Amino acid sequence: MTISPDKILLMMNAASTIASFTPASVFLCPILNVAGQIYGSYVGMKAQEAQYQWQQSVDNNLKSINDNLVVLQSTTSLIGLGTEAGATISAVNLYQVIKLRQEVNQGKVIVHGGFIPLAGSLQGYPTAVITQIQKVADDVEYRHHRTILSLAYGQFIQAVNWLRNAVHLPDDAHKTAAFAGINGMLFNALANYTNPEIYKHNSVAGRLRRMECAWAIEQTITMVFQLQGAPDVVIQRLSNLQDKIRKELIHLINLCETQEELDFIFPEIARIHNQDLAGLKLWQEQVDLMRSLSPEDLKELETACSEKLLTANNQKQEITALAEPPEQILYNQLREKSHFLSLRDQLRFVIQPESRQDHESYISQQAKNSNYHGLAPSNWQEITDLTVANLYWYFKKPKPSF
After folding, report:
1. Interatomic CA distance for residues 199 and 267, integer angstroms
2. How many helices (H) and strands (E) does the chain have?
3. What backbone torsions phi and psi does residue 112 show, to the nearest 5 degrees?
4. CB 256 within 8 Å of CB 265
5. Which end of the chain has less Cβ packing within 10 Å, N or C?
6. Distance from CA of residue 4 to its chain's centroid?
7. What local confidence, expressed as pLDDT, does residue 302 receive?
């Protein structure tokens, strides 16, 4: 049976989408390549080259997750544990995370216990930033939290190293037993990353960083299930993870009360929406499609997508490796046209589009009451989030009494 043209088109589009993602993604990995090769191996493809590529893809995924985890938890040394992170958090914003991640990936910084010496990586920043790093490092409660994270990271690294060896095991029974043990270690690491003490009395920026670490572990666990050839479990976990991320991000947005915190989380949450959530959805759709394909279909699919993905990835690395993320650029533009409350609503619309409906209804009613009928459009789909949020707060603003 030959794979249908519409399925090839679907996966080619998927390859283009993944290829467009930049290294700033918080926990996204080259999913398409791994998915195709994992399922190719699972249904009986035994070519030596395919097996080697599959193992390399697993290693690349694990390294990508590890690099992200190290950078994300290391930046907490500047954010600290207080409820008010302060303006210094701009030193570890989305753009800085991109650059730090590249330095870790290239082996330019030393990783110890899951942390990098952030002060050395932020040379050239104001003295206040370096002072804040030292202040946080000396805080007793922060050291306690760092100990918890170091323990969790140690469990994660042990599981990752075990996983790298397990994929080479020739015996399926031994491999299955290894996968079970690996996931047990990863679940223990996840329990530490989600420990309520980690989130207690933390700033919005600090909570976001902790959440991102936990989501990275969640993705690794799902990857192990995929390596075991359990597509139903993978699909359910990916669906649940997307729901969890959206729910936790909305809660985080609702907690945001300062402009400094919003400046920090807006570009990063927009990035999570545009890249990570989109990638998880794409991963889910791929697994769902692949479980219905024959070995011949999978081989044809691999050929159709691999060259396109490789070419686009090479171009991406050459052109956009250190480019300022578009989410940061967009936010800077929005900030010139909106105020805090409007910007916070616009961010909420990104993660929870249906929340716009209450704003639209309120604007329509207030426009009618104020005889501003032109401010109540008949087709809301043509109106930007910026306009909706600004109009809403225009009507919400108390009018002077005479």
Report:
1. 21
2. 19, 0
3. -130, 115
4. yes
5. C
6. 32
7. 63
Cα distance between residue 273 and residue 282, in whole Å: 13
- Which residues, 6+ apart, have CB-to-CB distance to 365 below 8 Å? none
| Interatomic CA distance for residues 266 and 233, integer angstroms | 32
pLDDT means per 10 residues, the chain with 402 residues, are 59 53 40 44 48 70 84 78 63 80 81 77 70 73 81 92 89 91 95 82 85 91 89 94 96 93 94 90 83 72 58 48 82 95 97 95 90 77 92 78 42
3-state secondary structure of 171: coil
The b/e string for 23-52 (b: 16+ C-beta within 10 A; e otherwise) is: bbbbbbbbbbbbbbbbbbbbbebeeeebbe
What six digits make up the tokens of 294? 């024959």
| Chain center to CA of 289 | 23
End-to-end CA distance of the chain: 79
**Helix residue spans in 110-203 (DSSP H):** 118-121, 127-137, 140-166, 172-193, 196-199
CB 369 within 8 A of CB 360: no
